[in-house]
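Record pair follows.
FIRST:
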Amino acid sequence: MSDKRERLLVVAGVVVRDGRVMLCQRRPEVHNGLKWEFPGGKLEPGESPEAALRRELREELSIDVRVGSIADAVYYRYPDRDVLLLFYMCEITAGEPAAVDCNAVEWPGIGEVPRYDFAGADRVFVERNLKTGDGSLCFLRRGGDAPPAHEVRCMTCPGGWPLAAPTTE
C-alpha cells in the first residue's frame, strides 16, 4: 500500500526580543489561513534549513537574521500532509519586521503567546516548550537520559533537542 500524502520539511524562526516573541499570522487564502505561527517556510531543492530560513524571513518580513541552534523539531500530521518543522532560535541582524508576505506581525509578551490561535505544529511547539514561570523563555529538556519534564533549560543553553513523536490534528 502506497501513502500518497505530501511530506514537507519546513523551518521556523523563534525570535525573542526584550521579553517578546515575534509571531506572524498566515494569509487567509493559504493552508491554515489566519492561524498564527513562528515565521518560516519550506525548503527549496538543494537548500539547507538555515539558508531556507534566512530566505523565508527576508521574503516574508524584510529582515535578515542570524540562525542559531535548533530549539525543537515537531513532526505533525495535518489532514492533507505530513510536516517536519524545525524550529531555530534566530536573531534579527538587519531590518524591522513588516508583514510583506503574511497577514500580520505581532510581538506578544512570552506569557501571552499561548493565547494565540496557532497552526497545529506551532501549537505543539508552544505547548511543550514555552514556560513562563519566572518571565523568561525556557525549553523543556526531553529525551532518553534527560531529567524529568519539570526541569527546564534556558533557550541560550547549548545542546540538541530530540525529534518528537508524531502528533495529529
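SECOND:
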Amino acid sequence: MTLDDMANPGKKISSPAGNGSTMLHTVNLRKIYTTEEVETTALDGVNIEINEKEFVAIMGPSGCGKSTLLNIFGLLDNPSGGEYHFLNEEVSKYTERQRAKMRKANIGFVFQSFNLIDELTVFENVELPLLYLGVSPAERKKTVEEVLERMQIMHRKDHFPQQLSGGQQQRVAVSRAVVAKPALILADEPTGNLDSANGEEVMNILTQLNEAGTTIVMVTHSPHDSEFAHRTIHLFDGHVVTENYKEKFHV
C-alpha cells in the first residue's frame, strides 16, 4: 500500500498492472443488516479490483465483513449501496433469478464445511452443477470423470461423503466447484476443517487451478494459506485497511 493510498482511503484497491482484464470491481460497496432493534454495517465503502487469473486472499478478524464480501462477490446477496461489476456487468441490483443465472455459469464455491449432499455419491455431488446447466448425460459423465481423475478421487466416485476423510471431502468439493469450468472460484476458509497435511494439499490444488487460468478469491484466517495468493487484502470493521502484493509467488 502506498502513501498515496493511505492518504486517500476511498481510493480503489487495484490489482497490479499487466495481470489481465478486470474480473470484478466494487465502487463504494456497502452492506447494512437491519433488525427492529439494531443496524449493523458489515461493509462500508469498499473499493476493490480483481483481475482475471489472480489469486487473492482476503483476511481480517471475525466480523470484519469477509464472508459478507464473498457472498456479494458470489452473487448470493446484493449490497445495500455502491456498485459491483462482474464480467463487465453492473450486477448490484440484479434480481435473485438474474444472479442465479450468472452465478451457475461463472462461479464455483469451496466452503470450510464442504457442503456436500450426504445422500448423493461423490460422482453425483460433482455432477450437480452440470445438471443445473442442462448438460447432456454423456457429456456429464465424461466431464465428471475427467475432473475426478485430475483431483485423484476417481476411486471414490461411488462412495458417499460420510465414507470419506475430511481431505477427500474437500477434494470432492473442489471438483464440484471446477466441473463447470467457472471463471471465478470463491473459497471460504477452504482448509479450516482440515489437518495441516490435507490443508496443504488443498492449497496446492487451488494453486494449480490458478496457474491453469482460474481466478481465485479466498477468505482465510491463516497467514500460511494467504502466502499462496498473489496478494492479500485486509479488512477491518467493513473497510479495506491494507493490501500486500507478493512479488514472488508461492511455488
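COMMENT: The CA atoms of residues 12 and 57 lie 17 Å apart.
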